[in-house]
Design a protein that fits this description.
The protein has 7 helices and 11 strands. By secondary structure, it is of the alpha/beta class.
Length: about 260
């Protein structure tokens, strides 16, 4: 099996390195990932500046892939159109440091990279690890869990271009209690900003890191994560509101 591995935390992120070691148990792995962190860039791509690409090697001078001075979606586009000699069988994005659940999926560069793979009709899986404190994350254990989930997804022979979002609960509290297939949560996260003034009196804001999602919805990726389950959510990138579209076809349109 040929696997393209990418992320949004950057090619040197420990989550990507840990996941690469696990995916090597499944087949050939080529990494094409951002040279620097690209968190929360969504599905943006680079249009007005050149995209620099540099080969990256491991400690034994073996090439592991390419570092791209661009966005996660750029990485997958370049990999599939320019850098890889053969099309991969699977695209995996992660492991992201921090969950990508609920409406945060829209902002996620991790998920965007997987969506880009699905654009090319390749089965694509995004993987994220929830945390409480962003230090000493157990990426090796998370990678082992992720690899086993990925293998189970592939055992079901999903159709070409299938897209999945996997979230692993915070491992500081012990191993997950189970695996659940759940929909994406749709409630808005509660957000806050720290308002400050610079020495010239100009106002600026820091986005506060403590995003809180209400748990009023039942049986979603957000609530299942809170119950310490690994969540697996099938996604699609068709944003059409089909119910409204059916109504709109009856509207009395005119020029």
């Amino acid at each position: 099996m040929r696997i393209l591995l990418t992320n949004d935390d950057g090619i040197y992120a420990p989550g990507l390195r840990a996941l690469r070691q696990e995916l090597l148990k499944m087949g050939e792995v080529v990494v094409v990932a951002p040279a620097t962190e690209q968190s929360a860039v969504g599905h943006s791509i680079t249009l007005l500046t050149p995209i620099l690409v540099q080969e990256v090697f491991d400690g034994q001078d073996q090439r592991i892939g390419w570092a791209v001075e661009g966005r996660p979606a750029d990485c997958v586009k370049l990999a599939l159109t320019e850098l890889l000699a053969e099309e991969p069988d699977l695209v995996v994005s992660g492991i992201n440091a921090g969950s990508n659940a609920g409406i945060n999926v829209i902002y996620s560069g991790t998920v965007a990279a997987a969506i880009e793979g699905a654009f090319f009709e390749i089965t694509s899986i995004a993987v994220s690890l929830e945390y409480r404190k962003p230090v000493n994350l157990n990426f090796p254990l998370a990678a082992d869990i992720a690899r086993r989930i990925i293998e189970q997804i592939l055992e079901q022979k999903p159709r070409k271009g299938s897209l999945f979002n996997v979230n692993i609960p915070n491992l500081d509290e012990g191993p997950p209690v189970g695996v659940r297939a759940v929909p994406q949560g749709l409630l808005r996260y509660r957000e806050a900003y720290d308002r400050r003034s610079d020495p010239r009196g100009r106002v600026y804001f820091w986005s506060m890191p403590e995003l809180v999602c209400p748990l009023h919805e039942q049986d979603t990726d957000v609530t299942a994560l809170a119950e310490r389950c690994v969540t697996v959510t099938p996604l699609k990138f068709d944003l059409t509101d089909t119910a409204t579209l059916r109504d709109m076809r009856q509207w009395p349109w005119r020029l």
